[in-house]
Design a protein that fits this description.
Length: 637
Amino acid sequence: MCGIVGLAGHTDLGCITAMSSAIAHRGPDETGDYFDPASKVALAAHRLSILDLPTGHQPMANEDKTVWIVFNGEIYNSPELRSGLEGRHEFATTNSDTEVLIHLYEEQGESMLDHLNGMFAFIIHDKERNCLFAARDHVGIKPLYYWEQPGSLALASELKGLLQLPGFSRQVDHQSLYHYLSLRYVPGEDTIFSGVKRLPPGHWLHYDLAGGNLQVHRYWELELQPQQGLSADEWAERLRTELRAAVLRWTLSDVPIACSLSGGLDSTSMVGLLAEAGHPLRTYTLGFAGEDEVNFGEQALAREVAARWGADHHELTLAPDQLLDDLVPMVWSLDEPYGGGLPSWYVFRFMSQDVKVGLTGSGGDELFGNYRKWEYMESRGLRRLAYGAYRALRREGGAAISGQRYSASLRASLAGMSNAAVAEPMRFYEHLYYTDVEKRDLLVSEPTGLIPSEELLLAAGRVASRLAPRDQVLLFDFGNQLPEEFLFMTDRFSMAHSLEARVPFLDRELLELVRRIPSRVRTRRDDPKYLLRRAVGDLLPLAVRENRRKRGFVLPTGPWLRGRLRPLADRLLGREHLRSQGLFNPDYYGRFVQPHMDGRRELGERIWPMLMFQLWWEVYIAADSREMPSFTWKDLA
């Protein structure tokens, strides 16, 4: 695991050093750089040593030094790929997956990506082709940003690496801000800074060094193709086999690993499969003080799982207010504004005290159940369409309606059910924090020419409109919220503590199986994780096996804003500050903040993303920070 940066068109080596130093937390074990004066290309990496500790140094080159690479991530099928390459290449390392990438690229170029199973972002300088080639993994687990200027290109694992470049303008992208206010994260290819892009999941980038031409191309996407003819038992057996293989693949490491363990089905399945295979277990659980959190029982369930398998178990209990102490470090680590959950920061910090690698259950929710987001489409949406068909027949034929005619009309309506449901995307996704109508009043500048957030979601939904509702929602979340919010947060919070977070539920071979499972076998209305529970139920304690409620700590934003955070909210969301900032309507305070503070309305969830944006603004714009700020949120208040 590493933090990587690359430059083309620059001759100042101080730039690549500054870029690399800004993301040193991603790889504190060693650093290295490479510069080719003829091509004006520089690469650098800060390495977190996980595989091939003695010889896996970066940047790394092939035998004749014509291909150079910096690489962030792990390739979990690299042992198999290496065995197929060894007869044709002279390997200089013992078991480095980085060197596997080099030789695979030499043989197959861009097609190499079809063979990779893992999480990765890398940059290759190919001297013979006189180009840079970069790629990001199929799901978007590892990040890669790029900034193109006339005659130059800069790439980095995190935005803060690009901040170090001369001429970089910290101008807020209004389209990204517009979407952030709706979703509490920045979606898509654009970032919060104008002109800076993130390479999308499942895409590669090619930059011609002679002509300065940049191409971005998709090489992979999840395509659901339900396969009929197998029973639930047969699918469960296949899922058990593939999930076990995925979990074991993702333990590839030359250093100790651990598991993040909650009382949920995903992480307990992972731990059970590792235990079944005889893998040594070290587990970490985060809990919260307070009556409500204790009643959830997450720590008790995790403790029961750990005891069953004899794991070396560790627990950390936090008071909710303790999260506030790290607000500014969290904002700095995230790069971009984020108004979502924060507890993972402490899980990863806790684990990093003992290990460099931690497995998590991320992705399991999106693949199995999606929090029942499809219920509206299958219940209320179905009833609405059925009633519409009935009304249409009444208009045509009076009161006497035959069952045959009604069934035919209903089937016709159901054929268009997907498109009808997509017309109200947030009914099966999540509510918008601010609607496009509200944002027209909220923003000082008229959002002329901006793509409405609703339209962004509609476009994503239409891609899957031919599928069953449960499959639509799976694809929708898989291509949006999973990479742009959850994996984004997981990467930044884990790497802030120099910990490699791994997500075996997003294993490529496992995804190849899941995409073929019919939706009504994969999940059921009374049990969203029906098939997963059936596949691994014997590995779970009874309390976990029967626990079908989605649990999780909810930030107490309402009480925080009325309590400890009130001075901060009064200042950063106050009329005077908003007026001088020039982004938001000063009336925001009176419309949203004051009613909440007075107890007239509960608006904590809506105010929180705004406050987090303002904290981001103070760190990245007002303070023009190039390194972790020394001030706290209390100083800002």
